[in-house]
Structures are given as structure tokens and as C-alpha cells.
Amino acid sequence: xxxxxxxxxxxxxxxxxxxxxxxxxxxxxxxxxxxxxxxxxxxxxxxxxxxxxxxxxxxxxxxxxxxxxxxxxxxxxxxxxxxxxxxxxxxxxxxxxxxxxxxxxxxxxxxxxxxxxxxxxxxxxxxxxxxxxxxxxxxxxxxxxxxxxxxxxxxxxxxxxxxxxxxxxxxxxxxxxxxxxxxxxxxxxxxxxxxxxxxxxxxxxxxxxxxxxxxxxxxxxxxxxxxxxxxxxxxxxxxxxxxxxxxxxxxxxxxxxxxxxxxxxxxxxxxxxxxxxxxxxxxxxxxxxxxxxxxxxxxxxxxxxxxxxxxxxxxxxxxxxxxxxxxxxxxxxxxxxxxxxxxxxxxxxxxxxxxxxxxxxxxxxxxxxxxxxxxxxxxxxxxxxxxxxxxxxxxxxxxxxxxxxxxxxxxxxxxxxxxxxxxxxxxx
Length: 428
Fold this sequence. Notes:
The protein has 428 residues and is of the alpha/beta class. Helices cover 35% and strands 21% of the residues.
């Protein structure tokens, strides 16, 4: 039997795309290789969001080439899109696909097997105006499934390479989204996470639909779905219709990930983030007023060009004022072809590292403080995995508190009720 192996680097969108390609390969008679098996096809979906992501992409490509010298090596994704010369600098690559034409990967594999000639399927720029369907999604047994609803981005933040790698925002067809959601529930998934490059912008290119509409359609089509979660959404895309829907349907997770990036108005302006700190906190206050005890996590970039100590301290103060649940912290990474790469006053690496440490410590304090509110409360939790080392089951509550539970019976992928404790929660 023909075998394959695959790697997805970076975001959940990349993981979703690899899952889809895996299922297409399985439908064509391929089997996912076990350790020690001969591998016929090796696929990697690359990431280019930071210089570190570039480096990891190169390392993993070379690792696959070394480990599977006889396999057809397929390199796809953002790093491939932005670096067509890869096919020359890493001669082991057989098929190079960017951020379009991914639905043809199986065809490319068969073409390469027939002719033995390298295939480059990378457009000069991603000019795709329609969402590219990739086929079936993964049937791997797990509690949570990711559902991609769009691709591309039109925001053009000055630090971000993704619009150049992924192209314009394009929404997936409503019928395909609902069909896949129903299929995922039928297969036994308890939680669906809506994801995309710019998730909250869904429908802007369609004209007659918006993000809250597709959320409502999924919920109506999947009455037995336990939880619907949003991977990430911009503050200015959370409208009253979406909040009313959250209040109406408790299946929408009481957790929103809302990227801030900076708590300094000057830095936000230079980032081209399209909001001020006062607008941001007003939105957060509105959300909390309508959905009490909701968890709000965020992304923060430190060391953006021109971020002085004073401006960084403004960010720290603003984060404390907003009182986020948790922070995802990233040091600024200059991306060639983005405006910010040519900005003056680039911040030195050691300074960025120190600022990252400061915010990670703050994030830990914020999470502990938020978690303490719920100690002793009855809460539902979706059990996702089993930790063999600690002999505990691990999952998350609706507001994305991490939970560890001891149980004599197998409760993986089940929804259980617990008495919350940050250390070991008690099943009831």
C-alpha cells in the first residue's frame, strides 16, 4: 500500500489544510505511515509569519528530505509561496505548491510519479479570488475539530507578510461550511473551532452575510453540537448581533481571543491596526457587560520599530487596565516586503527578549487571578487528551480554563462536570 507522512507548521489553518489533504490521499488509496514504515510521499505545510518560522520551515524540509530520501517531497504553504527559489536551494524538493493550487496536490503527485519532473505550482502573487475547497477533513478521533471558513486578509498591518502570502480575503461558501459542520458532528466531534486567516471578516466579500450569520447557521444546523468556539476575532468585528447570539445560545464558548498587538496608540498607528486603545477597551467593557465572566485572551507584539521604553510601559499599563485572562506574546520579527521592515528605530534583540519575559510573567499573574474566581464552582469540561506521565485527563472549560482530572474510567473525548480546582479538578 502507498504511504505518506505530513507536517503542519504554524497556525491552525495550516493544520486544517494538511488534514484535508491527508483525507484526500486516503481516499486515493494512501495510508498514513507508522514509525519505521517506508514512506512514499512526505508533505509539509510551511509557515512564514516570522523569521523564526522561516527557519523552522527550512529545518523541517531538510529533516524530511534526510529521513525519507526515497519519498516524493511536497512543500506547500506560506514559506513556499514567498520563496520559489527553494526548489533550487533544496534540490530534494519534488513538488512546490504555494497558497493556491493545493487541491491539486494529489494530481501533482501522480504527475511526478509518471514523468519524474519537478513541479512548481506557485503563482507570482496569490491572485485567487474564490475560496479553494480542499475536500474532506480529518476523521482522526479527537474531541475538537477546526473548521476553516475563509482565507486571505485585506487588513495590511505594516508588520504582516500574510496578505502577500495568502492574497485577498475570500469567504468560504455557506453551504460548504454548514455541510462540513454537520459532518463533523455526525462523526462525533463535540467542539468545533471556527478558524481562518481573518475569521471575523467572514462575509465582507459576499455582501449579504456576516460573521454572526454563519455562526447562527452552524448552531441551527447542528443541534447536538456541544460547543462552538471562535479561534480569533478582531475587536471591531464583534457587533451587538454576535453578542446577542452569545447570550441566546450557551453553546458559543465563553471565551474570545481578541488581538491587541500594542497598548500604545502611537504604536497601533504605526502598525496600521485601525483602532485606538480607548476604542478597544470600550469594546471589551461592552462584551463583559453583556457576557459576564467571559475569558478574553489576546496577542501582543513587543519590540515593534519605534517602541521606546515609555511606549512599552504604556502597553503594560493598558494590559493591566483591560485585565486580560491571558497573553500570547511575540517579539517583533521584520518581514521583507512589509512596510515595517524599513521603519527606523528597530529595537535590539536583547530588549525584545526582556519585554517578552515581562509580559509572559504578567500573563501568568493574570491567568492565576482569573482562574481563582472559579475555584469550587461546578463547570463542564471537554476532555481532550490523557497525560501518561502525570496520569491525568486534560481538557478545557467553556471559558478555556485548563483542567486536569483523575479518573479510573476512560473519559477522553467526553463532556463531564467537575468541581473546578486549578491543580486537580474533581469529577462529579
